[in-house]
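Sequence in, structure out. Go.
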Amino acid sequence: MAGLYYEDFEIGQEFRHALSRTVTEMDNTMFSLLTLNPQPLHIDAHFAASTEFGQRLFNSLYTLGIMIGMTVYDTTLGTTVANLGMADAIFPKPVFHGDTLRATTKVLSKRDSKSRLNAGIVEFEHQALNQLDEVVARCRRSALMHKRLT
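Output:
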């Protein structure tokens, strides 16, 4: 698998993920409606035009999902036991249809699991940036990671 094992991560290690994604109106509308989120800021162009943003906002939960998804190949693909939690998610700048997102990751901490000898917990900080290099999302994610079999 492409993912890294617990032992491969170093505190302070940084990743600039190669994947990027331009988000679309269809993405936003479909995700919002599939998740039963009828917020007019996401799905009603006329309503959103009258707001301070002047247009629809991209759904922040989808932004979070894309950001974390872009990090998987370089970090956790096939080597994660489970995500344990996501904390401190912030969205300092809006995302609009047509924005292109990319992601970075920093390893904040790691420790051996107390309940599983074959795993450890790694805490990541993920960031999503738009095409203007503005941070549009950030969160901390804790993942229970497999250790290498010895």
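Check: DSSP finds four helices and five strands in the chain. The mean pLDDT is 96.
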